[in-house]
Amino acid sequence: MNIQIINGPNLNLLGIREKSIYGNTNFDTYLDELRKHYANITINYYQSNVEGEIINKLHEIGFSFDGIVMNAGAYTHTSIAIADAIAAINTPVIEVHISNVYKREEFRHSSMLAASCKGVIAGFGMDSYRLAVENLLNG
């Protein structure tokens, strides 16, 4: 099984930014743990702060991978283009959020991507990624 994690803008700063919301762990450390836990599958990782690069990555892998775990960051709430890219591909996408977006600012309560995704997982910290991987594995 081949799973792609895609992180959007500012998620390269995990472990540094707004620790009260996002925690103290950087994503590389978490990714190492996740890969060890799921040693029998391939977990690829991609992060970009650029909307078009995220769309290009979806196009590149969206017909050949078994699943995509996507935290599009703020693009979740604004990007019709990423939503259209998700709708255009065959690979199932699960939208994830580290924080509980429904406990935050009202603009974060709306997702442009959710309708094109298999499901949404929010509010479980970094464990949101593992929960998404579990869902992809169990179909």
Automatic annotation (TrEMBL):
InterPro entries given in the database record: DHquinase_II (IPR001874), DHquinase_II_CS (IPR018509), DHquinase_II_sf (IPR036441)
EC number: 4.2.1.10
Keywords: Amino-acid biosynthesis, Aromatic amino acid biosynthesis, Lyase
UniProt-recorded name of the protein: 3-dehydroquinate dehydratase
Function of the molecule: Catalyzes a trans-dehydration via an enolate intermediate.
Record: active site: 22 (proton acceptor), 97 (proton donor)
Keyword Plastid among record annotations: no
NCBIfam families to which the protein is assigned, alphabetical: aroQ (TIGR01088), PRK05395.1-2 (NF003805), PRK05395.1-3 (NF003806), PRK05395.1-4 (NF003807)
Family: Belongs to the type-II 3-dehydroquinase family.
Pathway recorded for this protein: Metabolic intermediate biosynthesis; chorismate biosynthesis; chorismate from D-erythrose 4-phosphate and phosphoenolpyruvate: step 3/7
Gene Ontology terms for molecular function: 3-dehydroquinate dehydratase activity
Site (Transition state stabilizer): 17
